[in-house]
């Protein structure tokens, strides 16, 4: 049996830059998998071979083993396509938030944050940055697990940091040092993105939904205040920093977010700090009281598609 013949495609689960993701079933095990299909012809036509993002994703995921990182089960190639076989989870966090009627239960937020911070601590200790954290790249299941996925923009880093492209991370979750043109960056960019995602879990909408880089910066400034050398040493040295930026005073996050307790508020604040050197690392966040009593919590099951609906797509 050809490796690919083992799988029956059940439904289209999503579409990305380089291909389509299907929900599929392994005929031998009866288990559902996510089958990511990448068309190679357009890359071969350009003389590129297999896309760099696919190679990067395969290389990084083959070396990662963590309960909160989606598992790459197999890699297969046909004449014109590359297939990545992943473990299957029911939904991404963005669709989960869109499908729920109520704000997320505080223990679910806490549980999700613990799992995500543990995954980042593991990645960062292996010198890997995700660089594209957003709710669409986090998968959830009905048991309460959440896993990081889509490692197409990830890369390993070395210390001292090399110059990397700052055109990474979807705009709404992009750290201010990237928006200001910084080319030297480290694990703090993932922590900032995670802070934006936690705020979104609590608000049920994005905290900084900018429509351009300058609009994105101004939305951050209007809430956290316009940064200065006093609060962020070296900020004026960034290529895109302007002394003519409008001066906004910071507002309390409590004006935007209905926090459940002071520990939740403190935890979020440590991720949304301007100066990346003062942002807590994933390892430091794990030691905070907020995560100490986190336990696996069931999500709202009505948010998940029924098997019947999925298979009729």
UniProtKB/TrEMBL annotation:
Keywords: ATP-binding, Kinase, Nucleotide-binding, Serine/threonine-protein kinase, Transferase. It comes from the Eukaryota. Its EC number is 2.7.11.22. Residues 7-291 form the Protein kinase domain. It holds the Pfam family Pkinase. SMART domains: S_TKc. It is an enzyme of class 2 (transferase). The keyword Glycosyltransferase does not apply. Belongs to the protein kinase superfamily. CMGC Ser/Thr protein kinase family. CDC2/CDKX subfamily. This is cyclin-dependent kinase. It comes from Molorchus minor.
């Amino acid at each position: 049996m050809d490796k690919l013949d083992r799988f029956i495609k059940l439904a289209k689960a999503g579409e990305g830059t380089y291909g389509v993701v299907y929900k599929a079933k392994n005929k031998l095990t009866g288990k559902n998998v996510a089958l990511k299909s990448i068309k190679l012809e357009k890359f071969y036509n350009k003389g590129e071979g297999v896309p760099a993002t696919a190679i990067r994703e395969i290389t990084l995921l083959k070396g990662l083993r963590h309960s909160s990182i989606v598992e790459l089960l197999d890699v297969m190639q046909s004449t014109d396509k590359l297939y990545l076989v992943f473990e299957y989870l029911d939904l991404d966090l963005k669709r989960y938030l869109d499908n729920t009627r109520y704000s997320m239960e505080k223990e679910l937020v806490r549980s999700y944050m613990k799992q995500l911070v543990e995954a980042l601590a593991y990645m960062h200790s292996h010198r890997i940055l995700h660089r594209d954290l957003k709710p669409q790249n986090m998968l959830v299941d009905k048991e309460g697990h959440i896993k990081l996925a889509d490692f197409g923009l990830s890369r390993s880093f070395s210390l001292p940091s090399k110059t990397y492209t700052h055109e990474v991370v979807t705009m709404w979750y992009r750290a201010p040092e990237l928006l200001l043109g910084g080319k030297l960056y480290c694990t703090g960019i993932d922590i900032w993105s995670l802070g934006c995602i936690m705020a979104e879990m609590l608000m049920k909408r994005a905290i900084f939904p900018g429509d351009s880089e300058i609009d994105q910066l101004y939305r951050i400034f209007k809430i956290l205040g316009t940064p200065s050398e006093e609060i962020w040493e070296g900020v004026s040295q960034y290529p895109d920093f302007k002394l003519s930026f409008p001066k906004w005073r910071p507002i309390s996050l409590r004006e935007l977010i209905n926090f459940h307790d002071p520990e939740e508020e403190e935890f979020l604040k440590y991720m949304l700090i301007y100066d990346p050197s003062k942002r807590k690392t994933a390892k430091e966040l794990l030691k905070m009281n907020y995560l100490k009593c986190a336990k696996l919590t069931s999500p709202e099951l009505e948010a998940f598609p029924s098997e019947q609906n999925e298979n009729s797509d």
